[in-house]
Amino acid sequence: MLVIRELGSQKPTFVVSTGNGNFEFDVVSAFAEKYDGRGLLWFPKIPKAGMRVIGRRRAAGGEVKGLPACRIVNTYPGKYGITSFVFLMDAEHVKSAEDVLNYFSEELRVRNLRLQEFEEGAFLIEGSVGAHKVRVHTAVLGETKCIEENVARLVEIELKIPIDVEGMRSRSEGKEFKKLLRKAVMEALRRRRLSVKDLIDGASVESLERAFPSLSRIFKIVEKESLASGNS
Questions:
Q1: For the purposes of burial, counting CB atoms within 10 Å of the CB of 86, is it exposed (0-12), middle (13-18) or buried (19 or more)?
Q2: pLDDT at residue 36 above 90?
Q3: What whole-number distance in Å separates Cα of residue 53 and Cα of residue 148?
Q4: Bridge-partner residues for 123, per DSSP?
């Protein structure tokens, strides 16, 4: 499967929505290449002004914190005729299936919701946005907080470089924890002259399933659906 940032002439099979653009794009684009689906995944660049968050929480100075909706699920079915999405959510904001349902209902205003829960934080949300039926393949990322925890786990599995995630978690929280962990991950990768994409490219599917259980499950489903759709 191929992931793009800019919309071209070919209609995407899925749109990807997440919170932090470049880091997640590197992960998702490398992940997609591990699967043989014919789908085209569009990972659009969304300005911060277009983001909304669970609970509308804000940090000091007005900085938006939380999960971005980006209005993608609300607007893209009518604007582009795209009704299938891959949605990435940080574990720090989602503690249960009820949280996922509340987010889609209250923040994204998806109606007639149905949720299918898979193991390891993977969900399929089906519902209605206006006259459109939408399917949202949702992966909750991070052991307790964020996607950086998944990448740190893959570094340990593939490169045998230990990263003290628990220590960082005990010494910091929120944005500071994420910043410290990402720095540790990138330092470990630089020691081997690798990027995040290189790390995932070189990893086995089995290692990815151990490090990214929810995202792996969602990509298996996306792969199956894209093959069935017959898109090329």
A1: buried
A2: no
A3: 20
A4: 117, 138
- Going by C-alpha positions, the residue among 65, 74, 137 that lies closest to residue 100 is 137
**86 vs 75: CA distance, rounded Å:** 15
**Euclidean distance between CA atoms 3 and 102, whole angstroms:** 29
User: Angle formed by the axes of helices 21-32 and 213-229, to 10°?
Assistant: 60
User: Tokens 């990893």 label which residue?
Assistant: 203
Which residues, 6+ apart, have CB-to-CB distance to 179 below 8 Å?
Answer: none
The 10 Å Cβ neighbour count of residue 161 is 16
Tell me the two tokens of residue 193.
Answer: 């002259």
Q: What is the pTM of this model?
A: 0.84
User: Mind listing the pLDDT tens digit for each residue in 167-206?
Assistant: 999 988 778 999 999 999 999 999 999 999 999 999 999 9
Give me 26's structure tokens. 């590197």
* Dist CA 214 CA 218 (whole Å): 6
Axis-axis angle for helices 174-191, 147-159 (nearest 10): 30
User: Is-contact 207 220, C-beta < 8 A?
Assistant: no
Instruction: Please identify which residue in the block is written with the tokens 């090329």.
Output: 232
- What are 17's strand-pairing partners? 87
State residue 228 phi and psi, 5-degree precision: -70, -30
Cα separation, 40 vs 107, in Å, equals 27
